[in-house]
Task: structure prediction
Amino acid sequence: MLKILDKYILKRFIGTFFFSISLMLCIFIVFDISEKLQDFVSSKVPVKEIIFDHYLNFIPYYGNLFSPLFTFIAVILFTSKMAYKTEFVAILSSGTSFKRILRPYMIGAALITIMSLILNHFVIPKSNRVRIGFEDKYINSGYNTEERNIHRQISPGTSLYMADYDNFSNTANNISIEKIANNKQISMLKAETMKWDSIAGSWHLTNVFERELIYSAIDSAKTGMPKHVYKEKHRFTPTKTIKIDFSPKDMVRFQSKIEVLPYFELKEFIAKEKLKGSSRIEFFEVEMYKRTAFPFATFILTIIGVSISSRKIRGGVGLHIALGLVLSCVYILFMHISTTFATLGTFDHALLAVWIPNIIFSFVAFYLYKNAQQ
Result:
């Protein structure tokens, strides 16, 4: 059962959190409108789409993105006021331990963490489909890849090469598809263009050259070892239709591709990419693990916030907030560095790379807790 102290702290915690994050989201929206207003006007975007497709999905995305940071700020704000009014002195003088005071804080952090996990894994990916689609349509004037000499492993042993790709027409130029088995090339297909047929779900190729290699082994009279020989078959056709494990959705931005996938779809997508031998596995795994690790930072930052701001010090709330912002920036910097190393393949385990900032700051939180006002 929650006691009066628990209800008092929890009410101020949750209230301050939602007030501070709502205030900042209003500021974000004002800046976003001022930045994109010219695009809205020039593209003649309907007001209904601006509100419901963009900003209705903008709010949960950015609100959840900064929820650990604003949890930290909220804790420091109202806890510093309690310390300044000597409320903590009164509570501790009554025999209540610092550990007991932390209970309502942990309850509040748990509620925010659960909400963030649900949003991260299931709600926001679906809303991102609408938000990113809106931005690509009106803000980015559609997305077109700038990649050149594109290589994709579309299945085990099968590689696709494209000189360039146009996202607007879903057309690739100067393509080749190579199949390898037992470290030997068994076939190769080249085409001048490859265009997507959305109705048939297949690719239409023009000016196609196909090469097939048929291997056989004979005994060498000199060495007694088998010698591999092969025959080649060539074929030219003006057009050809093929179906491969590759479609226009594989050429959208990597960020957009994974941001719109809920948890189970993302796991399935990563499993398929592993079978293809994709070089972007770490990038996708980092995104999946971040969706869990970042919300759990709420607990760590809450403990740090309470430990720092529960003392009445010279400088008051301002000094507490300044110290809190410095720690928040350091945490975000650690997260960025570790995830960057993971996506570059420097870390062998993406899971460990993503959780390193939480592990390090857990020790910081424990140290501050042990040296907090008791």
User: Anything to note?
Assistant: The mean pLDDT is 86.
